[in-house]
Amino acid sequence: MSHTAHILSHRKPRQRASKSALRAGVAGGVLSTIAVAGAAGPAQADPVTQTIEMPTITSGFSTAVAASAQATQQVALDLETQADEDAAAEKAAKTAKKAHAEAVRKAEAKKKAEAAAKAKAEAEAKERAERASRTSERTTLSASSGSSDSGSSASAPSSSSSNVSGSAASIVAFAKAQVGDAYSLGSTGPNSWDCSSLVQAAYRTVGIDLPRVSQAQSTFGTQVSLDNLQPGDILYWGSAGSAYHVAVYVGGGQFVGAQNSSTGTVQRSLDYDRPTGAVRVL
Question: According to the model, what pLDDT value does residue 33 have?
Answer without folding.
Answer: 45
